[in-house]
């Protein structure tokens, strides 16, 4: 893999004390940046952030590394009285990507080398674990959710039914009685119990495996990150 591709997908664990300025706030707020990538970040701060909308904010990593961007608040959780948010960056220019990279090179050079070439070792439950590149590619958290769905394979002219196992803004894991071939395109209609129309999306089958006789588990990579669709589904979870 090329070096710039590795930069793009890596999610750096920082736990770095930073500052953030929201568009409508006059002053910067103290925050702790849990991790960051060119696609998003995890951030803890005392102020409540709005959900299901785009926000504009300035992240101040240090005195000389700051950048302004648009983000979507993808998820929120509270642990030990601290609010932590998952942000998806919708627009990051090349100059801001370079600021992130130069900040990491200055303050986390050893982590960069370890993460690119050897994998990042972490502690979980007292045991060492290696975070693989595939884990770092998962920008959004996946949420367990069972929703009935209908799918169409336009290449094979095959229509079928199934059920989601988990969803994120960029992917779906589902079970079905029909075998779907990896790399095939699918169109999906998810039945969300909110009295609205079925949620339509489309993507590509990235893996498929038999889980039991006449039942298959499939992983679907969506063509576009569906932020509004995921928010609608999570509201009824």
Provide a quick synopsis of the model.
The protein has 237 residues and is of the alpha+beta class. The chain contains 5 helices and 15 strands.
Instruction: Report the C-alpha radius of gyration, rounded.
Output: 20 Å
Biggest sheet character: 6 strands, antiparallel, barrel
In CATH terms, the superfamily of the largest domain is: predicted glycosyltransferase like domains
Beta strand count: 15
Strand order of the largest sheet: 1-2-3-6-5-4
Tally of discrete structural domains = 2
CATH topology of the largest domain: Thrombin, subunit H
Residue fraction in strands: over 45%
* CATH class placement of the largest domain: Mainly Beta
- What is the CATH architecture descriptor of the largest domain? Beta Barrel
Shape label? elongated
Give the uncertain stretches in residue-range form: 1-8, 117-139
Helix-strand pattern, N to C? HEEEEEEHHEEHEEEEEEEH
Structural class: alpha+beta
Number of helices: 5
Helix content: 10-25%
Average per-residue pLDDT, rounded, comes to 81
Terminal-residue CA separation: 38 Å
